[in-house]
Each structure stands twice: as C-alpha cells, then as structure tokens.
Design goal:
By secondary structure, the protein is of the alpha+beta class. The chain is built from 4 helices and 4 strands. It has helices spanning 5-16, 35-49, 94-105, 116-120, and strands spanning 52-56, 70-74, 80-85, 109-113. A 4-stranded mixed sheet has the order 1-2-3-4. A hairpin with a 5-residue loop joins strand 2 and strand 3 (80-85).
C-alpha cells in the first residue's frame, strides 16, 4: 500500500493556512529532436489508415537491442511485420541487422520505412 504521509502533512499545512513553500521548478531539457521522432507518429497514422494494428515497442522495455520500432499486424490477418523507422540517411546498427536476419530466417517480415509514402504503400 502506498505511503501517503507526505501528502497528508502537505494537505494539513494547506488547510491550516500555513505558508507552504513551492516545489523547485524542473529543469526543462532541450527536446529530443531527431528526424525519426518526427516521422514516427506520421508513419503510425499512415499504417493505421491502411488497416494495421500498430504497437510501438519502447526502447527501454524491449530487453533486446536491435528490435524494430513497431510491431504491425493487418486486422484481417494477412500480414504481420516488424517496422524499423529510418531517415533517408539513417543506417542500421549491427544489432538491428542481426535482428533483421533472425526475423527473415524465421519467415517474419522486417521492413525498413524511410518516409510516410513508403508506409502508405505497405
């Protein structure tokens, strides 16, 4: 069960009219600005419009470096694949190449998408 003692103490101060010191402001870091991050939601939307169910695989939950960015399945069951999002100049890491080879050896489609138009053609 969560410990609510800090919350209760803070609420007592607020309710009693006691002066409460505000929290320190968070340091706002520069946003993560990569071309792939800009493309990802556009590609996801394009795939969903084409009838795919799209699951984004978070990098920190993968547990295996090199996995694709998205797991996609057609709702009618005709296709399932890993999608790796790359920019026009982006290259695969050695782990990504190894994962692609593993997918292909097991007859799992692995597709590299570099633009929204490529995603629309799937």
């Amino acid at each position: 069960m969560p410990d609510f003692t800090k919350y209760i103490k803070a609420m007592k101060k607020v309710c009693s009219g006691e002066k409460v010191t505000p929290r320190k402001k968070r340091v706002v870091t520069k946003p993560y600005n990569r071309e792939e991050d800009r493309l990802r939601p556009l590609i996801i939307n394009a795939l969903r419009k084409r009838g795919f169910k799209v699951y984004r695989v978070e990098p920190f939950t993968r547990g295996y470096s090199g996995m694709g960015d998205l797991w996609c399945m057609r709702m009618n069951g005709s296709m399932a694949c890993w999608v790796e999002i790359k920019t026009n100049t982006g290259v695969q890491s050695p782990d990504q190449k190894m994962f692609q080879e593993l997918c292909e050896a097991n007859l799992i489609k692995y597709i590299i998408v570099r633009s929204v138009t490529e995603a629309e053609q799937l």
